[in-house]
Amino acid sequence: MPSAPAAHIKQPPAADRVYSHIKEAVLDRRYEGGTLLTEGELADAVGVSRTPVREALLKLEVEGLIKLYPKKGALVLAVSAQEIADVVETRLLVEEFAVRRAVPASARLIARLEECLDEQRRRAVEGDLGAVSVSDRTFHAEIVRHAGNQILSKLYDQLRDRQLRMGIAVLEAHPDRIAANITEHTELLEAIRTGDADGAAACVRRHISRVTVLVRGESR
């Protein structure tokens, strides 16, 4: 008997495909700050009409990634100094509190952080900056999640896109930072493993402060 035809895989709605295409390109800096995107170019890139492109652009403008200019297109917004300051301040407040709450750490958290570190090392060897940035953020997010405060965890998740975009910018400008991040994460994990809440909080402050200086340098 002839084999049954493969099931048709339904694609996401056109506007969702355009949204994902633009957002991913903005976050991994294929569309850098200052790039002007036109509806026609985006429609051709994704293979859709202009109507879903407009819908996707409106959503991205609300998220603060682009600015729409009628009859001209959409401008990809650069990361501003104020945005950097806001994200860093929020990270410091959330992560220092979370790491203290996470100590003494469960065996589950320790194992998860070890997995995240191994993933970061693998991605670093591959040279995939986007994946390195994702694994970097995941390491920190796991600590926040295991602190047990769901409101803080959701707040931290809202910073995801901004953190990834800033992280890739730093790694592109300072590739040596990849090894330094891994070293600092290893130190933080060791402090958590040994139950040193004060030491873990100090590691968080140093780590975020060092990255902050580099991000501000990249924004100039």
Helix/strand layout:
Elements lengths: L13 H14 L8 E2 L1 H8 L3 H13 L3 E4 L3 E4 L4 H22 L4 H20 L2 H18 L3 H8 L2 H14 L3 H17 L3 H23 L1
Antiparallel strand pairs: 1-3, 2-3
Description:
The chain has helices at residues 14-27, 39-46, 50-62, 81-102, 107-126, 129-146, 150-157, 160-173, 177-193, 197-219, and strands spanning 36-37, 66-69, 73-76. Strand 2 and strand 3 (73-76) form a beta hairpin. The model has no long low-confidence stretch (mean pLDDT 89). With 220 residues, it is mostly helical. The longest helix has 23 residues, at 197-219. It has a 3-stranded antiparallel beta sheet with strand order 1-3-2. It has 10 helices and 3 strands, in the order αβααββααααααα.
Task: Give a short summary of the structure.
Helices cover 71% and strands 5% of the residues. The chain has helices at residues 14-27, 39-46, 50-62, 81-102, 107-126, 129-146, 150-157, 160-173, 177-193, 197-219, and strands at 36-37, 66-69, 73-76.
